[in-house]
Amino acid sequence: MSKNSKTAGWGSALAVSPAKKIRRPFNWRSLMSQLFTVAVTLFGLLVLTFVIGRMMPSDPVRAIVGEDATRETYEMVFRQLGLDRPLWEQFFIYLRDVLTGNFGVSIRTGQPVITDILHVLPATIELATFAILIGATLGVSLGVLAAVNKDRWPDHVVRVFSLMGHSMPIFWTGMIGLLVFYAALGWVGGSGRMADFYIGLVDERTGFLLIDSALAQDWEVFRSALNHLILPASILGYSSSAYITRMTRSFMLDQINQEYITTARVKGLSRRQTIWRHAFLNIRVQLVTIVALAYGSLLEGAVLIETVFAWPGFGQYLTNNMLIGDMNAVMTCVLIVGVIFITLNLISDMLYRIFDPRTR
Amino acid sequence: MTTQATKLAVPGPLLALGNILRFLMKSPTSAFGLLVISVLIVVAVFAPWIAPYGPYAQDLNNTLAAPGGAHVFGTDELGRDIFSRLVYGTRITLTIIFLVSIVVGPIGLFVGTTAGYLGGKYDTVMMRITDIFLSFPSLILSLAFVAALGPSLNNAIIAIALTSWPPIARLARAETLTFRSADYVAAARLQGASTSRIVIKSIVPMCLPSVLIRLTLNMATVILTAAGLGFLGLGAQPPVPEWGAMIAMGRRYMIDSWWLVTFPGFAILLVGLAFNLLGDGLRDALDPKQMNRR
């Protein structure tokens, strides 16, 4: 490894400099093969959701026509839904519907599922984004701290602290948080995205409450929203920081054990400088990919935390529909989670390719 | 790596186990994990002797009693003793872990070792399938399966098992790739061993240590997923004393009776933490590089 690649920043990795003359052309073939992989995975995802959807014990026809419909009505709807056709034909109909953006109608709300989901998604994104900011800050700083103090007490403390975050049932942490910080201390807001009093005061433009209230310059609503956001976001962030901490620690250890660090120290650089200016700069790319992956798994915690905090987001929508057996809504939610996950994986992989000179 | 692993296997499995145990006891965190899990097993086995009351014994004159006196952890909305329910709950937790592990381990090993050893199209297809399962967060996929199968403890176990084999398969495949061109495998092939014999006799034993670690680490996730499903009402159904379901039931009385949710949550946290710490320690114990350094 040349010294250049170590000290080079984000910018210089991209800039066209004389040293970049030897840079090989962008690897289109590997990109295409990766996109092909993604397409295959997406197809598999559709097969999986289709199969799970067909396994549902609830009768989709009954859900539409009601309990005391006549046999004729029942059979008519049965045929309308295409349930009389062979399974593979049903799958192709499903495939066509999905590709044309037709995800069916939610039985519970009577609206197209996709409209419902687009309506609830911003609440979850707002929560998850705040959570990942907290989780990444916490995780990266603790990870570096642990790596620098390997096998000394800060390392052990960090290990137990982050494993705690990983071992906590997040719905329980949420309840205890509500008990302590809302009921007992009154530091934060309770359930929901804002105090009931403010609901409907701000026009919904983006669906992100913080942005909407800032646009309307309604700072009272803004403060209420922030107050309600901080607790669930911190809890989600803490639980996601465990993974980030562990990965940061091991990336950091890989770097610290390398000879260039010793060289830098021998040259007379301070410990702090070698850690932050050399070792840390070298792991940024890996960290970005890790954070992208952690963002995806936040969705999992979001389902539970939204139930506890009555947060009107994607997770609550999913669980509510699951409990009443609304097949279209549930399968679309699962599909969307899968797509988000695959996209994040792809993005993190791309980032890696673009920013890590060694992959070229 | 290869030589170290064979060295471990040579003195016989029992001696190796002794070595691992000794190594684990040296680290306070993994010793703690081991202790908690041992206590968990003892409590589960002797539950009827440890619990002062039955898990379903109601006392409607003494509902929502605060901790202390005859009820160490208080009573719930039906006057059932929370401590006794937690004690019986250990049996459910262990059952879930056990059933999931004995399903997931063999499936993961089978898919991973065959894909890694055979390679080619079979490998590609198997890994694509694995990737599809991996492209969901495990809780969401379990949710979908339970929704399809109907909520119950058994279905929750099936759903969790269905969603947690892919990481094991991935791991077993990666390990297999490092062994498949090893000399001892080539020797077995030259002696005329069949593919299935090579996989079972030469490859699987080499993958076992890392798969076992992964399974242990996985147990914490299994516990949390099962509790999450129980909490959402999709896992164990009341009145079964499953910890997640207990928290869900206690949620309604949470503000006035904090003990209903606090103690089951602590139980989940403690057991989850214990499995994580043990898995962490096992990883160090079975990692030859670490072994030499300490």
Automatic annotation (TrEMBL), chain A:
InterPro entries xref list: BPD_transp_1_N, MetI-like, MetI-like_sf
Cellular localisation: Cell membrane
Key words of the record: Cell membrane, Membrane, Transmembrane, Transmembrane helix, Transport
Transmembrane segments: 31-52, 127-148, 169-188, 225-244, 287-309, 329-352
Gene Ontology MF, one: dipeptide transmembrane transporter activity
Top-level lineage group: Bacteria
Pfam family, one: BPD_transp_1_N
Residue span(s) of domain ABC transmembrane type-1: 121-352
Membrane topology: Multi-pass membrane protein
An annotated GO cellular component: plasma membrane
Name this protein carries in UniProt: Peptide/nickel transport system permease protein
Organism name: Rhizobium giardinii
From TrEMBL, chain B:
Gene3D superfamilies: MetI-like
SUPFAM superfamilies: MetI-like (SSF161098)
Membrane topology: Multi-pass membrane protein
Any single Gene Ontology cellular-component annotation: plasma membrane
CDD domains (UniProt xref): TM_PBP2
Residues of the ABC transmembrane type-1 domain: 90-279
Superkingdom of the source species: Bacteria
Residues that span the membrane, as ranges: 31-51, 92-120, 132-150, 211-237, 257-279
Major subcellular site: membrane
Keyword terms of this UniProt record: Cell membrane, Membrane, Peptide transport, Protein transport, Transmembrane, Transmembrane helix, Transport
Subcellular location: Cell membrane
Biological process according to GO: peptide transport; protein transport; transmembrane transport
Family named by the database record: Belongs to the binding-protein-dependent transport system permease family.
UniProt name for this protein: Peptide/nickel transport system permease protein
